[in-house]
Amino acid sequence: MSLLGGAGALAVGLVLLAAGVGHLRGPRDTARALRAHGVLPGGSVGPVARTLGPLEVCLGLGLLVAATGLLPPGPARLLALAGTALCLAFAAYLWVVQRRVAGAPVPCGCGLGTTPVGPWAVARAGVLAALALLAVLAPVTGWQDAPGAPAGAQLAVAVLAGGALAVATAALPAARAVPEQLTTLARVPR
């Protein structure tokens, strides 16, 4: 039993599932963002845009199952390792995009809104990789009663922690995308 591994798998699973659903719902938006990034060869943009959503949904669902402790440690670790690799690839890709666009408002294409690529998008992918790595190093092997910590309480803590981590991590880039000049409701600059 690993509370940290469960929370990490749950957080990454939820974010990947949400991003995958976003990519499935808007493959043209994903392709448009990938083209704007200018990193992938032109012929690969369409296949990558069509593959990304199903990959994220499947991996996200797998990590959610792994977080329940229903999988043996081997498959749970493999899913978490795949999540770590995918999130590291996202971090490296977004780092390259960020350097390439040099502050231009290019959409992230993360499936989680229209946040532009920036250091916080790179940081989000890095945090997700670290959370997935927790599930590699300490996979959930089932929830057993431990002295002073009933299995239900352990599961509740893992679900609450994983949910909070998922929301905080997913919202990170959008929270930092603050306009340079804010105005009040009366259109008065602040």
From TrEMBL:
<dbReference type="Pfam" id="PF07291">
    <property type="entry name" value="MauE"/>
</dbReference>
<keyword id="KW-0472">Membrane</keyword>
<feature type="domain" description="Methylamine utilisation protein MauE">
    <location>
        <begin position="4"/>
        <end position="137"/>
    </location>
</feature>
<feature type="transmembrane region" description="Helical">
    <location>
        <begin position="155"/>
        <end position="175"/>
    </location>
</feature>
<feature type="transmembrane region" description="Helical">
    <location>
        <begin position="121"/>
        <end position="143"/>
    </location>
</feature>
<protein>
    <recommendedName>
        <fullName>Methylamine utilisation protein MauE domain-containing protein</fullName>
    </recommendedName>
</protein>
<feature type="transmembrane region" description="Helical">
    <location>
        <begin position="78"/>
        <end position="96"/>
    </location>
</feature>
<dbReference type="GO" id="GO:0030416">
    <property type="term" value="P:methylamine metabolic process"/>
</dbReference>
<feature type="transmembrane region" description="Helical">
    <location>
        <begin position="52"/>
        <end position="71"/>
    </location>
</feature>
<dbReference type="GO" id="GO:0016020">
    <property type="term" value="C:membrane"/>
</dbReference>
<keyword id="KW-1133">Transmembrane helix</keyword>
<dbReference type="InterPro" id="IPR009908">
    <property type="entry name" value="Methylamine_util_MauE"/>
</dbReference>
<keyword id="KW-0812">Transmembrane</keyword>
